[in-house]
Structure formats: C-alpha cells, structure tokens
Amino acid sequence: MFLSVQELELKKVRFEVAFAPGEIDYADGLRQVTTLEVRGSAELLPHTLGEIRIRGHLTVRMRADCDRCLELAEFPIDSDFDLFYRPAARADYDEEVKIDEGESEIAFYEGAGIELENVLREYVLLSLPMQRVCREDCHGICPVCGQNRNLVNCGCEVKPVDDRWAVLKNLQTKGI
What is the rounded CA–CA span in Å between residue 45 and residue 52? Predict the structure, then answer.
C-alpha cells in the first residue's frame, strides 16, 4: 500500500490491511508465522514541509532460529506504533546540524510517498529482541560435541583457554 504525499495533502488516510506470511521479505532467517494485521492512519503534518506521521497497531508472530541452541523460537509482536517521516530532499540537510533526542527518532523518505510494507518491515525488525532466544534459560549448544544442552546433558568438560599463553605453544626450545 503506497501512502502518497499528494493524497495526504487532501486528507488523512486510514488503513486496515493484512499481509500473509511471505508477502514481506524480512531476510536474516526471520519468518512470519501468522498474518501481519495492521490498522492505523497516516497524515501529513501541517507546517512541516512534508513530514508524515504514521500511527496504528499491529499484531504478528515471527519465527527465527534461537541464537543459543539453533532451535526454532517464536516472537509475538502486539504493539502500537507512532512513527514520523521527513522528506530526504531538503535544502537544510546539506550542512551538518545538531539534532535533539526527539529528532533522532525521525526517519526519512524519498520521492512522492512511503510504501507501508517498508514501514512495517522496519518496525517489526526493530521490535524484535537483540538476542533471539527460545527461552531465557536456554543452555545453548555444547561447544565440544555440538549437542543441544537443553535436550541432552552430554557431560563434556569445557576447559577455558587463556589466549595470552597461546603464542608459547608454538615456541620451540633449543638445548641450553
């Protein structure tokens, strides 16, 4: 769904759309499990030289490999959003200026508007946790034998290696 600046100049645009799994490409092994349902509105803010505000609510369930054990993990997202976009082509962006904290959360768009799918992709990616784990107490995989330590207690002993002494392993002693 394309949110046109020309249309937003005339009226606020309300939307209620659903994106089936596979319609939006998230990359990085991230998969959409359920339909992404979103409802909200987009408006051109007055006296801002083209700033667009998009707000609404979305629900979706995402799936990715656990960062610790590599099993599948699911991440539900049920969230309100309130996003601001400015046109990228403005004369005052040519010089370096100091921005305040509020301005650091504003994104930019190019051309005649914004593609809603791109906005939603970005929002979903930023809503996911930095470390994607199947559960908080995930034990991960054994660095020795590679088994999932959530399923098997392999008994492998992991000896910590002090890398500061690794160079000395290659040192050969000559008869003194």
Answer: 6
